[in-house]
Design brief:
mainly alpha, 67% helix
Length: 87
């Protein structure tokens, strides 16, 4: 192999590496979802649902304490698969 062929081969290899985009086009990784965020959303959902259901029960004449207790129990029955239901 002549010196010219070696230089041409090296230049061709370097050009193909640079133009292929393999080294410079990596996308930044997405941040992983935090479990704290998911549990916070579950807890907020629980609080809103219980407040709404207790309000519905109180409009039917149920006392506030009993309405809240019944709403909590209904939440546990209906949404037992959430992390907030166990709390």
């Amino acid at each position: 192999m002549t010196a010219f062929n070696r230089i041409a081969l090296v230049v061709l290899a370097a050009t193909s590496l640079c133009l292929a985009g393999c080294l410079f086009s990596k996308k930044p990784r997405k941040p992983k979802e935090s479990k704290a965020i998911a549990s916070q959303v579950d807890e907020e959902f629980k609080q809103r649902w219980i407040e709404k259901r207790a309000g519905e029960l109180m409009t039917r004449g149920v006392s506030p304490d009993i309405a809240r207790g019944q709403a909590i129990e209904e939440f546990r029955l209906n949404y037992g698969y959430t992390s907030a239901a166990g709390k």
